[in-house]
Write a structure and sequence with these properties.
mainly alpha; two-stranded antiparallel sheet
Length: about 100
Amino acid sequence: MIKFVQTLVLFCMLWVSRVTWDVTSLYTNISHILGMLAIKTILEQYRESFEMPSNGSLLHLLELVLKRNNFQFNGKDYLQVGGTAMGTRVAPSLANVFVCH
């Protein structure tokens, strides 16, 4: 699926001025590693290295949001080990950057 989305984005950048699509369960299917890599690439490309908070700090905070997301269901505690939770504020931005990366 990731290769398909990357190919579609490349095609859209080359041949189409506007496009829309719907990705089912995108938030919960974004790999932590690939999501972090996409965000790192965008930060390095569009932010100055001296800006505060630093890119490293922002990546560390993102890692905490992604890897320490616990929730409760039917009285049991769980730790989400993949993707990002639907309710986090970072989820829409992460999904957008991930798809465009």
